[in-house]
Specification:
Helix content: 25-40%
Radius of gyration: 18 Å
Largest sheet: 6 strands, mixed
Number of strands: 10
Shape: globular
Strand order of the largest sheet: 6-7-8-3-9-10
Order of helices and strands: EEEHEEHEHHHEHEHEEH
């Protein structure tokens, strides 16, 4: 059976598990009972139309946002019960986050951007820079080490952002539309680098995307619509319906 067709039992051996997540912004409901499991070493794509709650789901799963209702567990920890200090520790060491536009610190060079999570965790500057340089090398961005974000292309910025997300050796990386601002070639290069590194390190990846080609890199795909998670087949049918209507 193809890995994309396999649906693990709810919560069974999951690295991160979400159940019944609800989140509203004013009167707008972003999540309406969403449930999801991310397993160790898995690359999971969450697809769906704009406004379906994909980014909100990522923010809840990574501890950036607390849901109004529902539970997110990481191992034996319930993220909703953790103090901000512990959530910050998780995002610095065990979770990596990549956003659509990289969100690098503009005043810092690529090397300093990648080294920052290590420095915040207490690593000395010399070792942090050596480790950061090695990660830039892995993503083919060593030549950007002394360059600031404003002088980089979109693809270069995303490579640096990926290196920053993975430099601490996280167990999970959350990538929110990492190719959304890139052309097809740069997007393919970024995804190839991310998948290769995740396979090599055993890092789980939650990939938020609206692009079918990007989702094809995943082991498994789920479809988010109206704030709820559905099987990948529901997404395929919905996309076909939209295509035929067009």
């Amino acid at each position: 059976m193809n890995a994309r067709d396999e649906e693990p039992a709810p919560g069974a051996g999951a690295l991160i598990s979400a159940r019944g997540l609800r989140k509203s912004y004013g009167k707008a409901e972003a999540l309406r009972g969403a449930s999801l499991d991310l397993h160790e070493g898995e690359i999971l794509a969450v697809t769906g139309p704009s406004g379906s709650g994909k980014s909100t789901l990522l923010h809840c799963l990574s501890g950036i946002t607390r849901p109004d209702d529902g539970v997110v567990t990481y191992g034996k920890e319930s993220l909703g019960l953790l103090p901000e200090q512990r959530l910050g520790e998780l995002r610095r060491s065990e979770f990596g986050v990549v956003f659509q536009f990289g969100q690098l610190i503009p005043e810092l060079t690529a090397l300093d951007n990648v080294a920052l999570p290590l420095l915040l965790a207490g690593t000395r500057r010399g070792p942090a820079h050596r480790e950061a340089g090695e990660w830039l090398e892995r993503f083919g961005a060593r030549g950007q080490a002394g360059v600031r974000p404003g002088e980089m292309s979109g693809g270069q910025s995303q490579r640096v952002a990926l290196a920053r997300a993975l430099v601490t050796g996280p167990r999970a990386v959350f990538a929110d539309e990492p190719t959304g601002a890139l052309d097809s070639l740069a997007g393919e290069q970024v995804m190839t680098a991310l998948v290769h590194t995740a396979r090599e390190t055993g890092t789980a990846v939650l990939l938020i995307t609206h692009d079918a080609q990007t989702a094809a890199y995943a082991d498994r795909e789920v479809w988010l619509r109206d704030g709820a998670v559905h099987s990948a087949s529901a997404g395929v049918l919905a996309r076909e319906a939209v295509r035929h209507e067009g």
